[in-house]
Amino acid sequence: MKELILKDSEYEIKRGKIVRTKMMTEQEKLFEIVLPGGDNLDHDPGQFVEVSILGAGEAPISIASSPTKRDSFELVVRNVGRVTGALHKLETGDEVGIRGPFGKGFPVRILEGNDLLFVAAGLGLVPLRSLINFVIDNRRDFGKVTVLLGCKTPDNMLFGDELESWRKRLDVNLNCTVDKADPEWKGNVGLITSLIPGVTLKPKRTFAVVVGPPIMYKFVIQELLKKEIPDRQILVSLERHMKCGLGKCGHCQINGIYCCQEGPVLSYDRIKSIPEAL
Amino acid sequence: MQNLKIKTQNLIKLIEALKKKATVLAPQADEYKDVYLKAVSDPSKVILKHFKPLMPAVREALFGQVENMINFKKSKGNTKLSTVDESQETVLFGIPACDVAGIQYNDVFFGQREFADFYYTKAREKLTIISLACVTPPNDNCFCATMGHGPIAEEGFDLQLTDLGDGAFLVNVGSKKGEKIVADNKALFEDATDADSKKFEEIKKKAEKLPVGKNINKDKALGNMGREALNEKMMLEITDRCISCGACNYTCPTCTCFNVVDHQKAGEGMRKRILDSCILGGYFRMAGGHNPKGKRDERTRNRYFCKLEWDKEKFGDSGCVGCGRCLDACPVKIDIKEVMASLA
After folding, report:
1. A78: closest CA among A62, A92, A94?
2. Smallest Cβ distance to B83: which of A3, A240, A249?
3. What's the predicted TM-score (pTM) here?
4. Per-residue pLDDT tens over the stretch A71-92
5. Apex CA B93: angle with CA B41 and CA B308, to 5°?
6. What CATH number was assigned to the domain covering residues A108-236?
């Protein structure tokens, strides 16, 4: 058996180095990662990487940071399975395998000049944050920005400090809701869908970007359609098990669509006739 | 190039010659008289009769049931990684036209330029295909003629042999690789006479007319493929019978889905890819527990739509080559031809 280097193959694993970790909630941990030689990951907002822990396996994880942050990138990982469980045991200084970035992210060139309505529920804020921070860093290129966030309880709210900095900006409208409040909570109580009717928007020049748990999409999209946002201007990022990231292994298929290549960001227009998609 | 001819005794000599430079996988019987593709050590043991292997030929040489991808060795502060390249010069000898078509499908699927698969491409460069046309169908489940992929292949082989029935095989040369084999072994081949070519055409005509499978109009069936056109009652009946064993996927020459798993012992191990099946309940499931196709009928449909519709959208032709192996292997005898017949 010969051994060779996988250079220039999509299966090549880069050695990422964890330079910072932070427990964000009981289940979610943030990892800041640097590539060998300080290489730029060079991703688009909304793309994902395949994270390897040799021995445990490989899992697709959304990139949480904006490409405007150049020297490192961030992942936020919920501890739910074998690979994510092994990841949670890693600390600053540890190595982690990285492949990617993969997939089609948010079409920032198309979004430019338009109003943006971000809708994120739960962990959906993680991939959306890569775009929100990109928009904030290039704020003059975009119109009105509205961010609607929802999660189960105030304890589950991710990126608390960052949310405060968004809230303080005059050019970002931020509104949060929780399913179940605690005594200190000052925001809304109720599902994410309850925030949409109160938003004023110009449907023709608004792109809605929706990311959240699978169950949420149908209900949020119904509300957005009531606001008369055109189908092709509703963008979602879908969760599938993208094992290879190369359109080969098949696990991420939404009927004829390989989610890891054509997605994970897809327009409602593209998937509305596929019952399995949402 | 003019058609050639090779006598049976010279064909055995050809295998002997090929064996010096490559592993030749050819149909041979084992001690229990089961016939399958295995490495040749004694060329006289090779069965020179058309034959449909139980597992598609693509599994034997290009995209196996289990493939090693990456070796790793972990030690404190330093993980050693190396890629596994197990590819070697291989000749697939005596495979049927449906398997040639299956490999052509895999060539497109894995070799697509944008994301050419590293492991497949390496193995493919080192593969030579010498196919053997089926003059009669290997079994009743075959329907390659219906799908337009046989019983005598038009392309995709390096050399194709057709038994002329008189102690010689007609040889079609299909590629540069094939030309080189002929040039390197000139003494073994002879020019086919007009009578030989005529005989070949007759065999071909006869083979194509054999009542293989049901009389299905492929174009009409594929054209009608769609959620609305499918016979719901039949689909429910099929789903009801399906026991989600996955045998149809594992034996299909155009099923390409795989799972990736790590095996390790004391910090040393290997990342492997293993053939997977969309019929199995956990196939689409994610770590959080969400399963976009958790119901069996959704997954049964997935297989038919994948073969008969989505492949056509992506590659211009159905992914089904008509080998009939899904029916050969199915414990409850679910027949893709029934689905197609209901549409045409």
Report:
1. A62
2. A3
3. 0.92
4. 999 999 999 989 999 999 999 9
5. 140
6. 3.40.50.80
